[in-house]
Amino acid sequence: AASDVYKRQLTDKSGKVREREAVTYRKYFGEEKRTLLFYLQPLNVKDTGFLTYDYSQAEDDQWLYLPALRKVRRISSSDRGDYFLGTDFTYEDMKKAGKIEKQDFDYQTLGEEEIEINGKKIQTYKVAVTAKSKDIAKELGFSRSVIWVNPDNWIIVKSDYWDIKDKPLKTIYLKDLEKIQGIWSRKKLVVINYKTGHTTEFDFSDINYDTEVPESIFDVRALSRR
Length: 226
Hints:
mainly beta
C-alpha cells in the first residue's frame, strides 16, 4: 500500500489564497485499486472523505463523505467532470491521478516536441486526445485535450484542455518529479483554470509505497466512522 500527504493552495483571480491539507492511502486488491483521501485541515473541511474503487474491467465507484451533513454521497459517472471540493481538479482527475481512461478517447500522435517545465527542457511526445462522443465529453466537462508525455518514464508532464464548446478550459502541468523507492512520483502539480481565473497548486510529501494500511479503511461504511 502507499500513502502521502498533500497540501493544496488555491489562488483566485483576486489573489486570495486558500490552503488545505489531506492524507491519501492507496492499495491494490488484485487488479482493483482503492484510494482513500481524508482532509486534515482547515477545520471547516476536516474529516471530509473521498473513496474510489478503480476497477480494471468495470465502471468505477466513488463516494464522498461530508461530515457537516453526516452523509455519504455516491458520485455517479455523470458527475465525474464536476470540480472536487473547490479545487480545479475534477472527480475524474482525482481518480485517474495523472492518467487517462483509454476507452473514453481517440488518440493521435502529433510528433515530438521539446517543452520547458519549471525551467527544465524536456523532450516529449505530443498527443491529441479527443472524446469519443458528445455524451462522454459532457460527462468529463471537456471535449479534447493535448498531452505531452515524457518517454523516459511515460508520465504526462503537461495537459491542455478545451471545454465542450471548444474554448480553452485549463492547463495542468507537472512542476516537480522525483523517484521515490524506485517509483517516479509526482511531487508538485499546478492547475490553471481559464474559466474561473483560479490557479491551484498541489504539493505532495511524505510519500511512502510501503505503508501498512488495513483493508478495513477502504470500506464505504468506514468513511463516516473517522
